[in-house]
Amino acid sequence: MTAEKRKTHRLRLNIEAVCQGEGRFFKAYVVDISPGGLKMESQTRLENGEELKFTVEWKNPLKLEGVVRWIKKEGLHYLYGVQFTNLNEKQDAGIREITQDVFWKNYGG
Q: Which fold has domain 3-83?
């Protein structure tokens, strides 16, 4: 996915996520986020189209689901573009809270 196709601006951050995909658990780091998805970094190899469940810790734990849309190998780790799926109102509100907090921290003066 190129930047031109992205509907919303992603905000940079670095928070740990505990992930589950294909029956395995692993850690990843969320390096940027937007209302529609996020980019994560991990040493675990995933497949394009793989469905994930993951929890990020912000003010409260936020459990999310998504699907891997792109993969980029960098050295010994991988970067993944993950599109959120099946968001309920509470999850949507949690993502908005993270993006607003990060925006104001980085750009709010």
A: Thrombin, subunit H (2.40.10)
